[in-house]
Specification:
Blueprint (H helix, E strand, L loop, with lengths): L1 E8 L4 H12 L4 E7 L4 E6 L6 H10 L3 E2 L1
Antiparallel strand pairs: 1-3, 1-4, 2-3
């Protein structure tokens, strides 16, 4: 397992946090997700053989947020 941390922009409330969390948890290989509204970032523990950083970011963007 690998821990990947990246910035998430556009979140303004706990509903946003829940949306990002849900989008990331649906991906294969994702074991744990922690989205921090105050820090504006997501921390994802996942199997890098099953999901890429690009796929994680794309899921966040498809949920309506920015991912860097």
């Amino acid at each position: 397992m690998e821990k990947i941390v990246f910035a998430v922009g556009g979140m303004s409330c706990q509903r946003c946090v829940q949306s990002v969390n849900a989008a990331l948890r649906t991906l294969p290989g994702v074991q744990q997700v922690d989205v921090d509204l105050g820090a504006g970032q997501a921390s994802v523990t996942c199997d890098p053989g099953r999901v890429s950083v690009a796929e994680l970011r794309r899921a966040v963007e498809e949920a309506g947020f920015d991912a860097d």
